Amino acid sequence: MGAFEINLNPIVFLLIILGSAVIGYVFRSRQIKSARKKILALEKEMLTSHAQILALQGKISDLTAAEKPNIPVIPLKTISSGEEKKAK
Q: CA separation (Å) from 72 to 33, 75, 76, 82?
């Protein structure tokens, strides 16, 4: 009761296994290719955003340097003419 007899040729069985392996490989390689494209697009987007951030930081530093007043530095001790000759 309930016993089914299945006759399967070993060559057909191997062809089914190899065919399914090839189909699986093709499917997975397409998934990997798609994922790599997405990763490259995201990396490019990150690089452009970082470049924009660096450009803005450069502009900010230029503006702060331009706003900074030039205050002359006054030396704390004076060098006499004898010491000045020794320093040179």
A: 62, 10, 13, 25
Give residue 85's pLDDT: 60
Closest CA to 41 of 29, 30, 49: 49
CA dihedral 75, 81, 83, 87 (to 10 degrees): 80
Looking at residue 2, what is its pLDDT? 62
Nearest-angstrom CA–CA distance, 23 and 29: 10
Residue of higher predicted confidence among 78 and 65: 65
Show the CA angle centred on residue 26, arms to residues 23 and 28, nearest 5°: 105
DSSP per position, 26-71: HHHHHHHHHHHHHHHHHHHHHHHHHHHHHHHHHHHHHHHHHHS--P
CA distance 76 to 70: 18
